[in-house]
Amino acid sequence: MTATTTVARRESAEDLELLAQLPSGRRRRLGILGGRVLLIAGLLAAWEVFSGDPREPMTLIDEFYISKPSAMYEALRVWIENGVLVSNILVTLQETIIGFLIGAALGMIVGFLLGVSPVMSAIFSPIVAALYAIPRLALIPLFLLWFGLGMGAKLALVITVVFFLVFYNTHSGVRDVDQGLVDVLRVMKASRWHIHTKVTIPSAMTWIIAGLRVSVPYALVAAVTGEMTASNSGMGYLIIRASGQFHTAGVFAGILVLMVLALILGAVVAFLEKRLLGWKKDRLGVA
Amino acid sequence: MAVSMAGSRAAHAGPLSKEVQPVTRGGLRFEGVSKAFTAHGDRAPFVAVRDINLTIEAGRFVCLIGPSGSGKSTLLNMAAGLFPPTAGTVYYDGVPLRGVNTRVGYITQQDNLLPWRTLEDNVGIALEIQKVPRHERRRRVAETLELVGLTGFEKHYPSQLSGGMRKRATLARTLIYSPDTLLLDEPFGALDAMLKNSLQTELLRLWERDRKTVLFVTHDLDEAILLADEIVVFATNPGRIIHIEQVTFERPRRLTDIRRNPDFTEVWERLWTLIEGKA
User: Fold this and answer.
1) What is the Cα–Cα distance from B150 to B61, expressed in whole angstroms?
2) Which of A7, A187, A202 sits opposite B161 (nearest CB)?
3) Can you tell me the mean pLDDT for A97-117?
4) 138-197 in A: which are within 8 Å (CB) of B?
5) What is the set of domains in chain B, with CATH numbers?
6) Which domains are assigned to chain A?
7) Radius of gyration (C-alpha) of chain A in whole angstroms
8) How far is A187 from chain B (nearest CA, A)?
9) Strands, E assignment, A33-89
10) For residue A222, pLDDT beyond 90
11) In this predicted model, what pLDDT tens digit does every residue of A163-179 receive, in sequence order?
12) Residues of B with CB under 8 A from a CB of A
């Protein structure tokens, strides 16, 4: 642990003048942004031009296998017009978010309880490890038997996937708490409640948030997998149905929608993480 | 071997000014105290200290010195009640200690500041636990920060403070709830010489002010002689006391003057031979 030094330094006028001469990096950032736009536009254009009817001269790959951007756009337009897209996105999002919230809550609670009690942890660890070892997808048939084709089976799948990720992170985070911090509070007459709320939980927060962050994409994967296996709604269902109808553009459009959903969920998580771990950013800023 | 120093000391070293009340609380007594640790991980079980008899009078500044592994920190942790002795009894103010000793302040080499709290929230945490109202807490935090020279850094996170400032912060966090006794475990161990010197001066200044009982673990002989009324010398295998030295330099002390004092060298050499011989 090295000492960091951001200690109340005040720049003189000369210093500020020097600092002002540093390159701002604005041009560089604009260049990168422009490069990205060009790259993506180029890829889409190439896709559009080189994919098509195999009898056409420009065609390199048969449209049947990879579709083309204009066909995907068309497929999306039809879905939006007849309302299929929004209703199925909502189903998938519901399964993902509700399942995530329940799984994360259970994971945090059980992880915390076992984390603060070494004896309980030792007793339960073989059971948890055995359950964790089951490939989650193998549970789908069971969930279908229990909950039917509706949302219940998918929720159950998302919950089991998220639970273990959050559980293990919370558990490790709680056990990782520095005993020195706890001791200082103990001599201050802190109760267990004080120690948990003021030290254990904030200290484990980095771990917990890491667990939450990695489990968001897994939650989406679990929901879509469940929909693809047996369902009558959701983005997974939409993709499988398009595939069954040899509607390649629909499959690609569905995948595109899922990609956008995953990116949005990721951005939301990154935003929340920044809010919750403000102190951490400060630390990194000066290290 | 057991050295006992049942104390009957009438007057404290140094004059008592008007504001300074004679300290009557915060005395410690170890009676036949031994501590063994069970195996942990790949560490074999071992005896940290054996049959310690030691009395620390209220209001005294006592340094524990000795090689690592001589059980100084173990003794300090038992004084804090963080774990009980395997045999024997620790008395605090004449009463056998049971559970955590909440009348002490405890500072170790690590800062143990909460990295997610700002300086003011770190310093005020003891008052939060005591449910002191917010405005009162504010006032006392400001006061204590002023005392240790950290005014102006209230909103800084520990990672934004220098090593010396973090050390002052731990001092402030401890002083704010006015414990009768300070248990310090190599508090300045990780600091460079100049910083160490200025913090020692600071600590002495604060100690002259309210004469708390101080139990100060160090492996730095200079530091022990400069600060202490009394130096308890430990040896290893098993951890035990081999000597107790009374240090009689006048107070308030000026560290630079004491270093030039011929008595300093004499005491230093005598204790060094003891520690060397037993290490």
Assistant:
1) 25
2) A7
3) 96
4) 178, 180-181, 183-191, 194
5) 26-98+217-279 (3.40.50.300)
6) 87-286 (1.10.3720.10)
7) 26
8) 4
9) 51-52, 61-62
10) yes
11) 999 999 999 999 999 99
12) 80-82, 100-102, 104-106, 108, 110, 112, 114-117, 125-126, 128-130, 152-153, 157, 159-163, 165, 173, 177, 179
